[in-house]
C-alpha cells in the first residue's frame, strides 16, 4: 500500500502546486498579456480548489487526501522512501490550526479579488 499512499501524496502536492502556481500564473500571464490565463474553466477550477481547501479549514475538517494517505500508511514499518520523505517535508508543517485557517482564507480572498482584477473571458 506504500505506493498508493505515495500516489495520494503526489496528487496532493500537485493540487497545492495548481492552487499556488495557478495564482502566480494568472498574475504573470496578465502582466504578459497572455489570453490563456483568462480561460474560464481554468479559473473556475482554481477558484473552486482553493474554496474547498479554505472551507474545510474554516469548519475544522481535515483534508480528505491527508486522511486517505494516513490510512494507507497505517502499520507501515521501515524507513520512509524518497517520495514520502521529501514531498511530505515540503507539504506538511507542524503549526497551529489557526495559522492554516488564516492562510487559506486569505489566499481565497486574493484569488477572489484576482477574479475581478484579471477577469476570465465570458
Written description of the protein model:
The protein has 122 residues and is mainly alpha-helical. The chain has one domain. It is built from 5 helices and no strands. Helix 1 crosses helix 2, helix 1 runs antiparallel to helix 3 and helix 1 crosses helix 4. The model has no long low-confidence stretch (mean pLDDT 91).
Summarize the structure.
The chain has 122 residues and is an all-alpha fold.
Give the topology string: H per helix, E per strand: HHHHH
Gyration radius over CA: 17 Å
- N-to-C span: 44 Å
Number of domains: 1
Helix content: over 70%
Q: Which class of secondary structure composition applies to the elements?
A: mainly alpha
Shape: elongated
Summary keywords:
mainly alpha; 122 residues; 75% helix
Write the topology of this structure.
Blueprint: H1 2-31, H2 40-59, H3 64-73, H4 82-91, H5 97-117
Amino acid at each position: 500500500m506504500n505506493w498508493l499512499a505515495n500516489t495520494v501524496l503526489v496528487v496532493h502536492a500537485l493540487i497545492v502546486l495548481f492552487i499556488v502556481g495557478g495564482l502566480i500564473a494568472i498574475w504573470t500571464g496578465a502582466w504578459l498579456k497572455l489570453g490563456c490565463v483568462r480561460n474560464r474553466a481554468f479559473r473556475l477550477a482554481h477558484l473552486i480548489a482553493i474554496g474547498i481547501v479554505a472551507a474545510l479549514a474554516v469548519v475544522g475538517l481535515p483534508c480528505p487526501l491527508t486522511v486517505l494517505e494516513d490510512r494507507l500508511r497505517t502499520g507501515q514499518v521501515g524507513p520512509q522512501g524518497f517520495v514520502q520523505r521529501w514531498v511530505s517535508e515540503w507539504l506538511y508543517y507542524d503549526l497551529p490550526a489557526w495559522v492554516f485557517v488564516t492562510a487559506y482564507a486569505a489566499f481565497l480572498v486574493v484569488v477572489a479579488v484576482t477574479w475581478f482584477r484579471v477577469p476570465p473571458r465570458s
